[in-house]
């Protein structure tokens, strides 16, 4: 497969690859630290509300579906359908951020802060950095929806799918692996 055969622009693939590597480095560092204190990490992880993570997973995956539908609509010349899909994807991102805000507020009110345990340092850094990407994606999707050109819709959808993928990558070590 030649680079010319990749959908979208090469620079977008470079951005996506570099972002995934940054998150992978954080996950790797967290996994290494977990080996030094498996009980402490498991106890800290048990303090999180997995229901919030499950809800946010459904929200992000669903918003990814809307982004994919927007891309398909734009490719078919349906700007209205592309705008609708992009705005629904952006709305999913906004819901994700609201749920994450509620989760953080609950954590902080329970005395869970970034310095409570090394697990929580990674938890807040990885999920916070991801939330920043979600916020950027919401803005990007809204901006792309204004004109809904097929190439821009494709780039926005690619970024959004990267945001989905990163969530799927950080979900197990943060919420599931104990």
TrEMBL record:
Which source organism? Paracoccus acridae
Per UniProt, the keywords (alphabetical) are:
Membrane, Transmembrane, Transmembrane helix
Q: Does the keyword Transmembrane apply?
A: yes
In the UniProt record, does the keyword Transmembrane helix occur? yes
Indicate where this protein resides in the cell.
Answer: Cell membrane; Membrane
PROSITE patterns with a match to the protein in the record: COX3
Give the membrane topology.
Answer: Multi-pass membrane protein
InterPro entries xref list = Cyt_c/ubiquinol_Oxase_su3, Cyt_c_oxidase-like_su3, Cyt_c_oxidase_su3-like_sf, Cyt_c_oxidase_su3_a-hlx
Superkingdom assignment: Bacteria
Q: Which family does it belong to?
A: Belongs to the cytochrome c oxidase subunit 3 family.
Q: Which Pfam families match?
A: COX3
Per the UniProt record, which residue ranges are transmembrane? 12-33, 82-102, 122-146, 158-177
The chain positions of domain Heme-copper oxidase subunit III family profile read 12-178
Give the principal location in a single coarse category. Answer: membrane
Tell me the protein's name: Heme-copper oxidase subunit III family profile domain-containing protein
